[in-house]
Automatic annotation (TrEMBL), chain A:
Keywords of the record: Membrane, Transmembrane, Transmembrane helix
Composition-biased stretches (Basic and acidic residues): 188-197
Amino acid composition bias (Polar residues), ranges on this chain: 198-207
Record has Transmembrane helix as a keyword: yes
Superkingdom, taxonomy of origin: Bacteria
Stretch list, region Disordered: 188-207
Organism: Fodinibius halophilus
Protein name (record): Cytochrome C
Listed transmembrane segments: 7-27, 80-98, 105-125, 167-184
Membrane recorded as keyword: yes
Automatic annotation (TrEMBL), chain B:
GO molecular function: copper ion binding; nitrous-oxide reductase activity
Source organism of this protein record: Fodinibius halophilus
Top class in the EC scheme: oxidoreductase
Superkingdom, taxonomy of origin: Bacteria
Gene: nosZ
Primary location recorded for the protein, binned into one broad class: other
Protein name: Sec-dependent nitrous-oxide reductase
Length: 207, 658
């Protein structure tokens, strides 16, 4: 792998550090009584209000329809996710150092699988919150469930909920994109990455 | 009696003439003096905000009214000196102490003059102060939560009218006695003396309240003065910074039928006080500590939100007979009411209410006259300056009964004329009237946002009228007062809007909205709630008996109280509900009321704890409920207290949802 591509691969790994600082996903809600909106963000290890007290207020509203309170402590995935990203960063860096093109595929594959698993998990949690309602809820609308959309907007009684990826998710996508680009560019060089350990300078010239 | 007839006769004629003109105007057209585009200028579209906050004193309702300008929309009322059943101010255990005085609990006040805090001569949006005339007090209202945060009583004073006008950096607030009272020379105590010993025994005081960076008020010093009536005040600015000016009337020192007996002298006085010099004297320990019992009450949400009262026994008194250069009298015609300093700080304008001219004194000339000792007499150690030495000019034909003046920052002054019911615009340098406009009817104060500061926003003027009569739909004999909004952005004044104002607004102040909006609190943070009886979750809710006191630690959140079923209360108990609103969202107050309670409801803001005292008189079950329509299930937000006979063995029991 060329030095340049190794640097790109290192960047793809290191940029995932941003995931610890920006939310992965956001759910915004609009209602007549909330002219400024209310919402929550899913981060690598937490669920927080868009404004400091939003989560408490969302739980307050949800109790009318019998939805369980959203308590980040009760969601084990939020405890695991920081390690998953740490693992991806570490292994990505190792691949950059080692310079093996075929391991990029493995890394990418794992990353994509984890991302899909994450979205499926998110959907299952959303389904659970939206369907398993307290039978003693004050507001019961026949046939109504309150699962937030996985992606996009949905009107839930007076609230229009919009669920969209946040900065952290786009960072992950760009990371995947860069890793794919490195893999693809390396594929265009004729030695198929066999001599990357010794031929760095030549490869770069050839490239 | 002849004199009375003469006076009435003198004023009655112009009054009749003016009314005649107005009536004729009414018949000729519906929009008296109103310009065609007025509607668009005051129209604030739904969802839009006003450009200015207007703070209107409530007069005898003891409150402060908040209005948006230019729309005239009534936004809020802050309870200050009067108990307010609307939210429990002055009734709740937390706020009762705010109304303590050296005369005990005083549930009512007469609030006249709001005054915004200033920095560098400009309104800064931190606080607004307001005086109480009847039981002399000054209050400070925080503009972060629009609540009364502090009230200080003024000792050795009666009728705190010339108050609370600030110095350019809010170093001091003025507070002068309107009514002089007998004061013992030795200890300044009120005396049991014949009222007609006025000239011998009655004295006045001018007080200066120091304001700390955090807003805390204390009376730094008082100046002992002759027994006149001290009416209004304004601090100097720019070149005149360091001085304060107080009008006085009744230099005749009459004690009865003042309307005649105090209107005799051709000139009364403006007292010019060198407060910087006074502050130096205070630093040097000069003056005398005198008995001056007064109460200071304050409430701080960060310290638990429970009002505390302290009694201060003494006050430092400066005597102009003993300390030089403190006060000078500027002779001023004729029972002057308002005294206003223009934005440049060079001119001192008096509203000689019985005068036919507006006298304008020059600060520079005043300084020079002091230097050259151009005195024409002395009253109680106070030198009287020569009128001609200090006068800058006289504004001719300013209307009848000039009272108050404000400024637009563009070289113009605007003065209300009470008797001729108009506002007169005049050029300060030229002392010439340039425009006039009718008001409906009889304006007292007027207000231009920042109009008494160094940086006026000379766009709008509000006339605060004393007579309403036919301006609005009739509401029987008693009605709100009338205000008019006038466009002063152009050469000619234009009437834009008529709007009713609550109580009896005297003075008002205005400020650009953006200076206030940025510091707004939306709710109190639960984690910062330092109230000793606060609980921060439903798990902590409980009922405790301590002798015949029962303390109920309760929470309110949409849409239930915890606990909402309480038993074990007995006739003769003192029951305290300590209710914490657990909400942490904007505009979700909860209310509390219980059947037969002998006080008012509570209105508890999110994150706040308030306490309600209830002394049940009869056995039975008593409902309580949330008084503020908080949510879709607000009507379900209710509970019961079971009251058993005295000596019953019903145990304390409580819960919600069991």
């Amino acid at each position: 792998m060329s030095k340049k591509n190794r640097l790109w691969m290192a960047l793809a790994s290191l940029m995932l550090i941003l995931v610890y600082f920006f939310p992965l996903w956001g759910i915004s809600m609009e209602a007549p009584q909330y002219p400024e909106g209310i919402g929550m963000n899913i981060t690598v290890n937490d669920i927080t209000g868009k404004e400091p007290h939003d989560l408490g207020n969302i739980n307050g509203l949800n109790h009318y329809i019998g939805m369980k309170a959203i308590t980040p402590d009760s969601i084990p995935e939020l405890k695991i996710m920081p390690y998953i990203f740490a693992f991806l960063i570490a292994t990505g860096l190792m691949i950059a150092l080692w310079g093996s093109r075929k391991w990029i595929v493995v890394w990418l594959g794992l990353f994509v699988l984890l991302a899909i698993a994450g979205l499926v998990d998110f959907y299952i949690w959303g389904y659970d919150y939206g369907h398993n309602l307290n039978p003693n809820a004050p507001i019961k609308v026949p046939g109504m469930t309150y699962q937030p959309p996985l992606i996009g907007s949905k009107q839930l009684l007076n609230i229009n909920a919009t669920s969209l990826p946040h900065i952290g998710f786009y960072v992950a996508l760009i990371s995947m994109g860069i890793a794919s680009m490195v893999w693809w560019k390396e594929g265009k060089t004729d030695d198929g990455g066999k001599s990357e350990k010794t031929m760095n300078n030549n490869t770069r010239k050839a490239a | 009696m002849n004199t009375i007839h003469k006076i009435i006769g003198t004023w009655a004629l112009p009054l009749l003439v003016v009314s005649g003109v107005l009536l004729a105007g009414c018949q000729n057209g519906q929009q008296i003096g109103s310009s065609d585009d007025a509607a668009s200028k005051v129209y604030v579209a739904p969802g839009e905000h006003d450009e200015f906050y207007g703070f209107f004193s409530g007069g005898y309702n003891g409150q402060l009214g908040i209005y948006g300008l230019p729309s005239g929309r009534h936004l809020f009322t802050v309870p200050v000196f009067s108990q307010a059943p609307v939210n429990g101010y002055g009734y709740s255990e937390e706020t009762k102490a705010m109304l303590n005085t050296s005369h005990g609990f005083v549930p009512w006040g007469d609030a006249h003059h709001p005054e915004l805090s200033q920095t560098n001569g400009e309104t800064d949006g931190r606080w607004i102060f307001i005086n109480e005339n009847n039981t002399p007090r000054v209050a400070r209202i925080g503009l972060d939560d629009f609540k009364t945060q502090e009230i200080i009583e003024i000792p050795n004073s009666a009728g705190n009218h010339a108050s609370p006008f600030v110095t350019p950096n809010t170093e001091y607030i003025s507070a002068a006695t309107r009514f002089s009272i007998p004061m013992d020379d030795k200890d300044m105590q009120n005396m049991d003396v014949p009222i007609d010993s006025y000239k011998e025994n009655f004295r006045g005081t001018l007080s200066f309240i120091k304001v700390s960076d955090k807003g805390k008020m204390n009376i730094d010093f008082q100046i002992l003065m002759p027994g006149f009536d001290y009416d209004l005040s304004h601090a100097g600015k720019g070149p005149s910074d360091g001085w304060s000016f107080f009008t006085s009337y009744n230099s005749e020192e009459a004690n009865t039928l003042l309307e005649i007996n105090a209107s005799k002298n051709d000139k009364d006085f403006i007292a010019a006080v060198n407060w910087k010099k006074a502050a130096e004297y205070v630093k040097q320990g000069k003056g005398t500590m005198m008995p001056g019992e007064h109460v200071r009450n304050y409430i701080d949400h960060e310290e638990g939100g429970i009002a505390k009262s302290e009694t201060i026994e003494e006050v430092r008194v400066l005597d102009p007979r003993k300390l030089d250069g403190l006060v000078y009298f500027l002779p001023t015609p004729k029972s002057p009411h308002g005294v206003d300093v223009d934005p440049s700080g060079k001119y001192i304008v008096a509203g000689g209410k019985l005068s036919t001219v507006i006298p304008v004194h020059s600060f520079a000339k005043m300084k020079k006259a002091i230097e050259n000792e151009e005195f024409e007499g002395e009253v109680m150690g106070v030198p009287v300056l020569n009128y001609d030495s200090i006068l800058y000019g006289e504004v001719e034909n300013p209307g009848l009964g000039p009272l108050h003046t404000e400024f637009d920052g563009k070289g113009n002054a605007y003065t209300t004329a009470f008797i001729s019911s108009e506002i007169v615009k005049w050029d300060i340098e030229k002392t010439e009237v340039v425009d006039r406009i009718n008001t409906y009817y009889s304006p007292g104060h007027l207000m231009i946002p920042g109009g008494d500061s160094q940086k006026p926003d000379g766009k709008y003027l509000v006339a605060l009228n004393k007579i309403t009569k036919d301006r609005y739909l009739p509401t029987g004999p008693e009605m709100f007062h009338s205000a008019q909004l006038i466009d002063i952005s152009g050469e000619k004044m234009k009437l834009l809007l008529d709007f009713p104002t609550e109580g009896e607004p005297h003075y008002a102040q205005g400020i650009a909205a953006e200076k206030v909006i940025e510091n707004q609190k939306r709710f109190y943070k639960l984690e910062d709630n330092g109230h000793p009886d606060a609980i921060t979750s439903e798990k902590q809710a409980r009922v405790e008996r301590d002798g015949n006191e029962v303390h109920i630690y309760m929470t309110a959140i949409r849409s239930h109280f915890t606990p909402d079923n309480i038993e074990g209360v007995k006739v003769g108990d003192e029951v305290y509900f300590h209710i914490t609103n657990l909400e942490q969202d904007w505009d979700v107050p909860h209310g509390f009321a219980i059947k037969g309670a002998n006080n008012a409801e509570l209105l508890i803001m999110p994150g706040e704890t308030l306490s309600f005292k209830w002394e049940p008189q009869k056995e039975g079950v008593f409902p309580f409920y949330c008084t503020d329509f908080c949510s879709a299930l607000h009507q379900e937000m209710q509970g019961y207290v079971r009251v058993s006979p005295k000596g019953s063995d019903v145990e304390i029991a409580y819960g919600t949802g069991q």
